[in-house]
């Protein structure tokens, strides 16, 4: 109980000191009164009308400063808004360009893939044709006895192609040897 009384008394003293300090720092602004021409640095007395006029002038100046400050803040906010709008526009344009670039790259990859696939198919077709012609040439080679045993005649490839049957999907068809002669 004694401690609480001491703490309460200390708080009361501190609050009083704080109020005194606030009052000391709450000084008024000097009025904008014109000094007389013969001012010698001594005390000057002003009439109440001049004091009121000076106060009105001070209030008017404060209003003008507040208006100018609001205008400058408004202009600053507008500039910030415009800057953000421009940044957003730049970002949007960049995204659109990236999207177009990705679409173009995707299209190029698709075209390259299709060209590669076509090239592979063409290569396979040509290899199949080569294999067929080699097989046809092998099958069409016949030995015809002639004056010398070293001469071998070949039947033209066109004839061999005509005489070969087509292969089915399941297995290769081997024509009988009697048709190959």
Structural class per helix/strand content?
mainly alpha
Topology order in helix (H) and strand (E) letters: HHEEHH
Number of helices: 4
Largest sheet: 2 strands, antiparallel
Secondary structure: helix percent: over 70%
Overall, the morphology is: elongated
Question: What is the average of the pLDDT values?
Answer: 81
- Which strand order do you get reading across the main beta sheet? 1-2
Q: Into which percentage range does the β-strand content fall?
A: under 5%
User: What's the end-to-end separation, in Å?
Assistant: 134 Å
Number of strands: 2
Low-confidence sequence ranges: 155-162
Estimated radius of gyration: 54 Å
Keywords: Coiled coil
Characterise the protein shown here.
The protein has helices spanning 2-25, 48-140, 157-163, 177-180, and strands at residues 141-142, 153-154. The chain is mainly alpha-helical and 181 residues long. Helix 2 crosses helix 3 (157-163). The protein contains four helices and two strands, in the order ααββαα. It has a two-stranded antiparallel ribbon with strand order 1-2.
A few lines on this structure:
The chain has a domain at 52-130. 71% of the residues lie in helices and 2% in strands.
């Amino acid at each position: 109980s004694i401690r609480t009384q001491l703490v309460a008394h200390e708080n009361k003293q501190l609050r009083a000191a704080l109020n005194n300090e606030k009052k000391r720092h709450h000084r008024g602004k000097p009025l904008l009164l014109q000094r007389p021409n013969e001012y010698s640095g001594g005390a000057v007395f002003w009439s109440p009308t001049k004091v009121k006029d000076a106060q009105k002038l001070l209030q008017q100046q404060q209003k003008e400063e507040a208006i100018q400050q609001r205008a400058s803040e408004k202009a600053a906010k507008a500039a910030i808004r415009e800057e953000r709008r421009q940044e957003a526009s730049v970002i949007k344009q960049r995204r659109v360009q990236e999207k177009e670039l990705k679409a173009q790259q995707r299209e190029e990859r698709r075209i390259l893939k299709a060209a590669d696939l076509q090239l592979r198919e063409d290569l396979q077709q040509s290899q199949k044709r080569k294999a067929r012609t080699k097989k046809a040439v092998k099958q069409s080679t016949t030995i015809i006895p002639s004056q010398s045993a070293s001469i071998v005649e070949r039947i033209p490839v066109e004839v061999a192609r005509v005489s070969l049957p087509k292969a089915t999907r399941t297995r290769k068809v081997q024509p009988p040897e009697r048709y190959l002669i």
